[in-house]
Write a structure and sequence with these properties.
Rossmann fold; 3-stranded antiparallel beta sheet; 9 strands; 41% helix; binds pantoate
């Protein structure tokens, strides 16, 4: 694997690559979720490049930029084992030599969910991802569904700025206990991890209740909020049932919905979500109608 630190070198290597390029942007501290993105990119693209950059622009002043896990050697070994050809790992001075006067903002979608709790976060994400897209010019870029609000913001950005690439969203990868994989999970003590498991449990049960016929988004949102507010040791940031594209509130979930949660366990902020697709409701509506028909015979 070639490890590249300079933008000029990354551009040069990219230009020399024949065929399609899949890009997997990361902040390192890689886990199986990141590797699932790499595998998806390898399946669909001629070449795969990973970027590793802990982007200061997307961290608030009181957030964990300083202590964000940095495991460069281990990350390189994992990527080598996956057969990644190219790793772009620039320093902060390479990416922001004159600071960051020019930024990319998606002000409406970017101010919802995590954007509301972390002002400026998505401006940092959109700016760095735009720069990575301009440097690497990928044909496809891979992101995890766990970061559902980030996906909504980046989709809007790719559409509005005509990046001309396909944004591919891969399913959330979970540990055996159900916790969504995240580089920040390593901050959790055993006890905090046990508490954090309330999040995937609450989401899964809200999803099950929805598919069994409770289609009201406000009712599901209230259920999630009440369930998670009662968990001792967990501080709910938000529980929301929204449109997965606009992140706006919904009346009903039958056209598809995002059930999303953010919560602090100790000082660690965790996010997770479940997607409800419209097809699930077409099928379950048909099942309910079929049952009603059987019962009326
Ligand atoms: O999802 C992440 O790890 C980061 O937000 C990203 C997309 C690599 C931008 O820094």
């Amino acid at each position: 694997m070639q490890i590249v630190h300079s933008i000029a070198e990354m551009r040069r290597l990219r230009r020399a690559l024949p065929g399609t390029l899949g890009l997997v942007p990361t902040m390192g501290a890689l886990h199986a979720g990141h590797l699932s993105l790499v595998r998806a990119a390898k399946q669909a693209c001629d070449h795969v490049a990973v970027t590793l950059f802990v982007n200061p622009l997307q961290f608030g002043p009181k957030e964990d930029f300083g202590k964000y896990p940095r495991t460069f050697e281990q990350d390189c070994a994992l990527l080598e084992a996956e057969g990644v050809e190219l790793l772009f790992a620039p320093a902060v001075e390479e990416m922001y030599p004159g600071g960051a006067e020019t930024t990319v903002d998606v002000p409406e979608v970017g101010s919802r969910l995590d954007g509301a709790s972390r002002p400026g976060h998505f401006r940092g994400v959109s700016t760095v991802v735009s720069k990575l897209f301009l440097i690497a010019t990928p044909d496809r870029a891979y992101f995890g569904q766990k970061d559902a609000a980030q996906v909504a913001v980046l989709r809007t950005m790719v559409r509005d700025l005509n990046f001309g690439l396909e944004l591919v969203v891969c399913p959330t990868v979970r540990d055996a206990d159900g916790l969504a994989m995240s580089s920040r999970n390593r901050y959790l003590s055993d006890e905090e991890r046990r508490i954090a498991l309330a999040i995937p449990r609450a989401l899964a049960s809200a999803k099950a209740i929805a598919t069994q016929g409770e289609w009201s988004a406000p009712v599901l949102e209230k259920l999630l909020t009440e369930t998670l507010s009662e968990v001792s040791g967990l501080q709910l940031d938000y529980a929301a049932v929204v449109d997965p594209v606009s992140l706006l509130p919904l009346a009903s979930v039958t056209q598809g919905a995002l059930l999303a949660v953010a919560a602090f366990v100790g000082t660690t902020r965790l996010i997770d979500n479940e997607l409800l697709s419209a097809e699930e409701f077409t099928e379950s509506t048909t099942a309910v109608l079929n049952l009603a028909e059987v019962l009326s015979r």
